[in-house]
Amino acid sequence: MSELVPTAVVTGGSRGIGKAVAKTLAGRGFQIYLTYVSKADEAGAVVEDILAAGGKARAFALDVSRPEAVAAFFQEEIRDKVFLSVLVNNAGIAKDNLILRLKDEDWDKVLNTDLRGPFVCMREAAKIMTRQRLGRIVNLVSVVGQMGNPGQANYSAAKAGLIGLTKTGAKELAARNITVNAVAPGFVETDMTGSLSEETRRVYLEQIPLKRFGTAQDVAEAVAFLASDKAAYITGQVLSVNGGMYC
Question: For all residues of the chain together, what is the average pLDDT?
């Protein structure tokens, strides 16, 4: 096992925060296995960037909302082929609406991707990491999972649930030298926030003491810290990257 390549799996690694995380971890010496659902060209571009910088990376089509596909990925691509050092559960979707108008299918889609998906990835990664007696799991949650947000009942619930999963996973896996932590971004400049109106952006900025939205790189640096040996005695924690925005 010691001869296998130290690898970080980053779900949803083709753009936004996932892309920044993948490239940052590659710069710290990890081989990157990033997953995507539909943007093969974007995922390929991230891989090319990492390779051009002297790193190692591969991209895999994977829908984390499908448990059987997740299990097959870890069995066929990870187990006994690489040393699974880090799992970053970043893949997620949003289907926003007020509770009174929220459709069952949109509730299910978000919970299946944003909560069940990370759970299944964590379970499959833990099977491998427990054999290694070493590993780092970092879950991307959100400030709205800590404080709620109108129109995002499903997303808020999923991210709040992921915080609970993080804390339970930390307690269950600590004996095997596996840490489980979460990073909770506030409002970050991504495709999701790029569509906000100027008025909405102004309202959000008023709630942020640093008076700016975060960047994907701000979040990636926090993930990289929790994935490193420097965070070896940190587990079960939620690191908020939100410019001072507190619930």
Answer: 95
